[in-house]
Amino acid sequence: MLNNREKWTVALLLVLANHPRDKPASKKVLIGNLNIGIDYAEQLLAPLSKAGIVKATRGRSGGFYLVDRDITLWDVLEVIRMKKEPEESSIPWRVEEVVCRMQTACEDILKKEKIVSLSLLR
User: Fold this and answer.
1) Cys staple from 24: which of 19, 50, 63, 117, with CB 3.0 to 4.6 Å?
2) pTM score > 0.85 for this model?
């Protein structure tokens, strides 16, 4: 499951995936219909920029763009979540085993799903 921060990040990436490749998406375009502030959008994109998934350019024609259009949801979530160690659980081991199998199945799907394939334009 995605938390709100992850959902907003994916929404921003979908905007970038739908934007023409030849020029960066301006801040105005980026937050367009999402109804979030540019500061929050920049905060969400910062780790992705650091990881080389998104690039920001400054200046009058500056903005954001996807560096690699083959990026997967898994790649994005891995950066966002920074491979946090799981917390100690009080869930019975059988339930934990099922949850682990579910997470593995989800990971397999996310590793194959490209951001661009989720966008409106292909």
Assistant:
1) 63
2) no
